[in-house]
Amino acid sequence: MHIMEVKENAAGEITDVMINGNTYSMEQAVKLAKSGELEGVKLSARENGEQYISHFANGMELSQLPRFV
After folding, report:
1. How many domains does the chain have?
2. Which residue of 20, 22, 57, 64 is 20 to 30 Å from 31, comparing CA positions?
3. Could you give phi then psi for residue 37, rounded to 5 degrees?
4. What percent of the chain has pLDDT over 90?
5. What phi, psi does 23 have (nearest 5°)?
6. What's residue 25's pLDDT?
7. Residue 69 lies in a domain
8. How far is CA 63 from the centre of its chain?
9. 25 occurs within a structural domain
10. In a domain, 38, yes or no
């Protein structure tokens, strides 16, 4: 499974990702990454401990992907 597109909120934070035509919240995508179903991504944590996908293993950031609405 690979992330193809992302969705941002008004603050510019990525809230959702599109994987193989299916939309997942960032929380769901983190669970997929932890279980090994979503490969090639790096997880980071906010100050409050909330995890998110920050970038791909090759260094490309999610913010570089196309957007969807």
Report:
1. 1
2. 64
3. -75, -25
4. 75
5. -100, 135
6. 97
7. no
8. 9
9. yes
10. yes
Torsion angle of the four alpha carbons 15, 1, 65, 33, in this order, in degrees rounded to the nearest 10: 50
Q: Name the amino acid, one letter, at 62.
A: L
- HSE, side-chain direction, 13 A CA sphere, residue 46: 8
**Hey, what amino acid is at 22?**
N
- 53 within some domain: yes
Cβ neighbour number for residue 30 with a 10 Å cutoff:
20
Q: How far apart are CA 11 and CA 9, in angstroms?
A: 5
**Does the global pTM surpass 0.85?**
yes
Residue with tokens 């997929």: 32
41 and 34 in contact (C-beta within 8 Å)? no
> What are 7-39's pLDDT values in tens digits?
999 999 999 999 989 999 999 999 999 999 998
Domain residues for 24? 3-64
